């Protein structure tokens, strides 16, 4: 029996873990599939578009030719005037005149664009040009942004649980260290002796049989002997049934005879996991200074790694770029030479956005509390004082 029960318990534990992890994996897998489908769509639409050279491009070439001809004919022309003309000409140029769409809208480039869309970062370096591409971009963002927020909320529960437990364990350790410093050796020994004496006294005074426990109850003592014996007998039977009740075996028999009950119970647990999304994040209460420190360390780690493949960035520029990205500001002033490498950092981006989101939520809660205190203080100041009239 022991050999058959152990595999059953192991399978049951594996199923329990699977259905507990299922909602989280479902959301993340849905986001990954959505990103890959968007990358295929935009790489096909924007990458295969035809580049039509407009009249503005021809005028640009003509003006560039005139400037270069004047410079070659008149070498004594002022250098500052030449720079101004070139600057005005280049500022009117469009990027599509010099870039092949297939070089921008590769699969990894399109995937990077999709990630900037549903994360609401929007660097602005890559954008759809065709009319159908713009319409599909709006439709893609309409469904992708809520899915991204759902993933952030779900991962926020996990991160909030880890942060709260870590913070609580740190507080417990801190209290133990303070207690050990404040407690002197003699006092602690006396306290331990008193505690051990109390425990031994409890063990000695504990009744040895169930009959003594039942007889010691005041409700039983006050009744006549015949009623008292009948009640004792009923209580003994009830106590025996509680100890011999095979709860797990009955549930196994009931599930094996009717598998629909097992599936229904499993599905109800899965639905409960879906309903609990966002609950742990609402209960999180850690100091805002701790969250700011976590954000600083988190961004610093990425800023130290990013210049290894983005050679144009130093630590400060990489720190600025990561902060602009995780806060979803996304100016687009810093361009990456290898965006496909940054895609492998996508998990870092999602977790970092979640950390920033938690910090913003904690800051919002603190601001609301501050506003409440200020309003209550101002209300108490403006309340008219009660006049006491003599009788």
From TrEMBL:
Cell compartments where the protein resides: Membrane
GO cellular component labels:
plasma membrane
What is the membrane topology noted in the UniProt record heading this document? Multi-pass membrane protein
Gene Ontology biological process terms from the UniProt entry: stabilization of membrane potential
Query: Where, by residue number, does the polypeptide cross the bilayer?
Result: 21-45, 104-123, 135-153, 286-306, 318-336, 342-363
Q: Which residues form the Potassium channel domain?
A: 102-159, 294-364
Q: Name one GO molecular function term.
A: potassium ion leak channel activity
Q: Which UniProt keywords apply?
A: Ion channel, Ion transport, Membrane, Potassium, Transmembrane, Transmembrane helix, Transport
The record's section on SUPFAM superfamilies has:
Voltage-gated potassium channels
What Pfam families does UniProt report for this protein, alphabetically? Ion_trans_2 (PF07885)
What is the similarity comment for this entry? Belongs to the two pore domain potassium channel (TC 1.A.1.8) family.
Q: What is this protein called?
A: KCNKI protein
> Its encoding gene is what?
Kcnk18
């Amino acid at each position: 029996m022991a050999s058959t029960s152990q595999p059953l318990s192991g399978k049951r534990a594996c199923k329990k873990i699977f259905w507990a992890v299922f909602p989280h994996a479902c959301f993340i897998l849905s986001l990954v599939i959505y990103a890959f489908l968007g990358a295929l769509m935009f790489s096909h639409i924007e990458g295969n578009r035809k580049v039509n050279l407009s009249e503005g491009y021809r005028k640009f070439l003509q003006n560039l030719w005139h400037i270069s001809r004047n410079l070659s004919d008149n070498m004594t022309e002022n250098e500052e005037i030449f720079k101004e003309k070139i600057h005005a000409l280049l500022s009117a140029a469009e990027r599509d005149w010099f870039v092949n769409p297939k070089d921008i809208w590769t699969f990894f480039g399109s995937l990077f664009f999709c990630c900037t869309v549903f994360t609401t970062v929007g660097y602005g370096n890559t954008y759809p040009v065709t009319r159908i591409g713009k319409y599909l971009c709006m439709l893609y963002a309409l469904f992708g942004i809520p899915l991204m927020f759902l993933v952030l909320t779900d991962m926020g529960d996990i991160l909030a649980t880890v942060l709260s437990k870590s913070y609580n364990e740190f507080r417990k350790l801190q209290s133990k260290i303070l207690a050990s410093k404040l407690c002197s050796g003699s006092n602690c020994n006396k306290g331990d002796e008193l505690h051990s004496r109390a425990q031994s006294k409890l063990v000695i005074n504990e009744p040895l049989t169930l009959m003594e426990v039942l007889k010691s109850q005041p409700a039983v003592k006050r009744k006549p002997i015949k009623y008292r014996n009948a009640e004792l007998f009923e209580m003994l039977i009830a106590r025996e049934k509680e100890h011999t009740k095979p709860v797990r075996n009955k549930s196994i028999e009931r599930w094996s005879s009717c598998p629909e009950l097992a599936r229904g119970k499993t599905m109800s647990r899965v639905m409960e996991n879906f309903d609990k999304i966002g609950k742990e994040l609402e209960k999180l209460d850690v100091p805002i200074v701790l969250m700011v420190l976590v954000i600083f360390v988190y961004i610093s780690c990425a800023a130290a790694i990013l210049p290894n493949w983005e050679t144009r960035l130093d630590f400060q520029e990489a720190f600025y770029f990561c902060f602009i990205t995780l806060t979803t500001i996304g100016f687009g002033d810093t361009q990456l030479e290898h965006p496909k490498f940054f895609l492998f950092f996508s998990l870092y981006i999602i977790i970092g956005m979640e950390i920033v989101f938690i910090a913003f939520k904690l800051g919002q809660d603190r601001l609301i509390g501050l506003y409440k205190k200020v309003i209550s203080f101002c209300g108490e100041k403006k309340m008219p004082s009660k006049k006491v009239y003599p009788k």
